[in-house]
Amino acid sequence: MAHQERTFIAIKPDGVQHSLVGEIIKHFEQKGFHLVAMKFLQASQELLKQHYIDLKDRPFFPGLVKYMNSGPVVAMVWEVLNMVKMGQMMLGETNPADSKPGTIRGVFCIQVGRNIIHGSNSVKSAEKEISLWFKPEELVDYKSCAFDWIYE
Prior knowledge:
Blueprint: E1 5-11, H1 13-17, H2 21-31, E2 34-41, H3 45-51, H4 61-68, E3 73-80, H5 83-91, H6 104-108, E4 117-119, H7 123-133, H8 147-150
Antiparallel strand pairs: 1-3, 1-4, 2-3
């Protein structure tokens, strides 16, 4: 069995408000990524401050927390071979203006402050973010019937 890697992906409030949840999930499903967990929630300021703790000294930190707390988000865990790297490639650059056409941000975003989606940028941050947003029992471990059609 191929070594699987998990990552944390969150559709931000602007992505939810623009009714892009299904479209974004479709991108991941069509690529063959394996959904392990998902929840729809209004993230607390405490959770968001923990999530973005690495950015706490940046001038945009208070605005980022306020924006992420302004509406519901869809928190997800996806799994596939090289998931973190592949997830980042699918999301596009943090600044949508630098994103390639066909990436989620390249298709759906205009401004960096409203870039509709978050994805872990390393395996270490993925592990931290997954444990922050999900309890271990909320992660569903199953083999997709498409597994043998995706991997050699």
